[in-house]
Amino acid sequence: MLSKMRMQGEAVVITGGGAGIGKAAAAALCEMGATSIIVGRTEATLRQTQAEFHAKGWKCEVFAADISREEDVARLAQWVAQSGLEVKAIVNNAGNNFSAPIHELPTERWRELMATNLDSVYFMCRDFIPLLLRAKGPSIVNVASTFGVIGNAKMPVYCATKGAVVNLTRQLAIDYGAQGLRVNSVCPGSTLSPRYKGYIEKGLVKMEAVNARIMLGRPADCDEIGDVIAFLISDAASFVTGATMVVDGGQTIH
Q1: Which of 9, 14, 23, 192 would give a disulfide with 91, using CB separation of 3.0 to 4.6 Å?
Q2: Which residues are catalytic, by number?
Q3: Among 15, 144, 114, 8, which Cα is nearest to 73's?
Q4: Could you tell me which CATH number the domain at 2-247 has?
């Protein structure tokens, strides 16, 4: 099995790859021998992550883009196509959230999160699938959330976008399975990303209450999610497609 986890420099494009789960996934893929192409809005953050990876001898490229914008994704796809790298996979990880009951939710905020969490997945899949179909053993991993399979208070648009990502994943697996393209989603539970740590520091998340709902008694570290993403991309997961991988320490089983 370990040989199936190894990669030979093939490229994987990871959106939101400069920090958090995206960075952890990029690191795991680099350890496996991939070239990680990390994408995000803030070039300075991407460059810092690239420098960390290069110091470990890993292959990493960066591309600054707002993937909620159709034209930015088109630029990214064109750049990757011209890079000469074989693109084995994409990881649609970029996303955002905020809290408000729907009767207090302004239209612009609804559309903003729809663009970041859902439109971006559409743009990335549409523009990269033609490239992926040229590769050997290609795959897509869409990062959704446990709130894509259950509800959560005061998060109507976040739950709607992540639920849509889960079902879009299944649909794409149907359309492209015969062509050898695998498509899976990962649904993280509470994860100690920089954003989540910020919520804790501000008192917006009460860890005692969170831990009480998780069977393992703690939130995930980012690398525990990143490792699952890397596994799904690897040839060790060659018969896994259309799956919804819930990685939540048992939070949603009761």
Answers
A1: 14
A2: 158
A3: 15
A4: 3.40.50.720
